[in-house]
Amino acid sequence: MFTHVRTSKANKEVVSQLTRKLNLGAENVIARIALAYSLKTNKKLDLSDIQDSGGKEYSRKVLFGDYDKYYLALVAQHYQLHISNQDLGKYVKMHVDDGLDLIKDKNHFKDTLNLFT
């Protein structure tokens, strides 16, 4: 089971910018939103397309808090994987990056803001 998740280098600044713009407090909040937002699109990501890991690092505990089993179950269910599958952390990372990419896009950013109204 994985212990850390790192965003792509390109998304390191995106995490900080969105956290400030949305006044979210801790930067792990936008990562949780990004993960859920990406899963909401219902697309399956391909492990061969995984981005670099040069960005913001989150420990599993910081990223998910006390709800890690729920977040991991969402990803495992999405890919029909067992919760102990060795690739689960990679899928989490990919969906966090994908969600951040979607949210930073202006059209999706407006949709994200609607989550808070």
From TrEMBL:
Listed name of the protein: DNA sulfur modification protein DndE
InterPro entries hit by this protein: DNA_S_DndE, DndE_sf
Naturally occurring in which organism (per UniProt): Psychroflexus salarius
A Pfam family hit: DndE
Source organism superkingdom: Bacteria
